[in-house]
Amino acid sequence: MADTDPTETHRSIGRELKKGSLELVVLSRLVRGEAYGYEIVSELSARTQGVFDITDSTLYPVLYRLERAGFVSIRWETQNRGVPRKYYQITPKGLTELAALRAEWSRYVGAIQQLLTSGD
Amino acid sequence: MTELDAFLVRAQDAIPAPMRKSLPLVMDVRSQCADRVAQGQTEQEAILGFGPPETLAAAYLQEIPLALPDHGRRLIAKFIDLAAVLIGVALPFWIVFVAVDPDTQGLVLVAALLAAVLMVPLYTVYAEFATAQTLGKKWMRLMVVRDDGTRISLLQALGRQLPFVMQMIWVDAAFALFTAHRQCAAEVLTRTRVVSIESTVHPAANR
Q1: How many CB atoms lie within 10 A of CB B69?
Q2: Which distant-in-sequence residues (6+ apart) come within 8 Å of B122 by Cβ?
Q3: What is the CA radius of gyration of chain A?
Q4: ipTM rounded to 2 decimals
Q5: All domains of chain A, ordered by start, with CATH?
């Protein structure tokens, strides 16, 4: 049986948690107002002291998923720099989804908390 | 060509041709890179955040569910392809056929038959590799992709024609009736599949 590096296991849990909660986190950010990709990435990292540090390659496909699902709408702003910037806004459907995801998250966290403390 | 352009070419290259225009990948990457460069990063550093271009393309494509192909549409597509190749081969050979003396006409017929047998797989390999679609598949709104939704390689395109070369197309096709993703035997082996081009929505969108 191969030895598993405990640090790597912790990182892996973090990765999985990030992946599973990204929609929730992004929609939560958009409730506070429209934002563009770079803004979302840097805000998430800054507000969580780097715990929720996500790469552009992780964020953009998720934003595309949310857009396809109708949870966010987009607006292009043509800047002086020549490359337009894409702003994301949460839609009423996105708000409903966010409420469902929040409820699911709370239920999950509650259950884990219960499991962790029941051993004491 | 800038480093960013080269990155985008590689990413686009991994996307099946019919999907290229519908994915926002190019504009997303350009926009994000411009923001990062404006914040003081170099273009190279900005590109690094996106990882390998092929992986990024696959991540975008993963968001589009692969729709199962309709058996009838696949069959019609195959007949269209066969008819197109036969017409394409028959026309030039017919010109030769009427021009030569009757003694040589038999030879022209044999040559035409051989050309047709060769052209069917050759055309299919080229079309599926280059554009993910043959003429029939284009008309029937089907395309060929890898299991992860990305563009197939030349080797995979060649592998898909093995049943035709080995004269086992019926056995190969029968697999599509029983496999989960309606894949023929060669498709299971080459990890490719034919999918329907439809505007599918996120399951949550119907809640």
Answers
A1: 24
A2: none
A3: 17
A4: 0.79
A5: 10-118 (1.10.10.10)
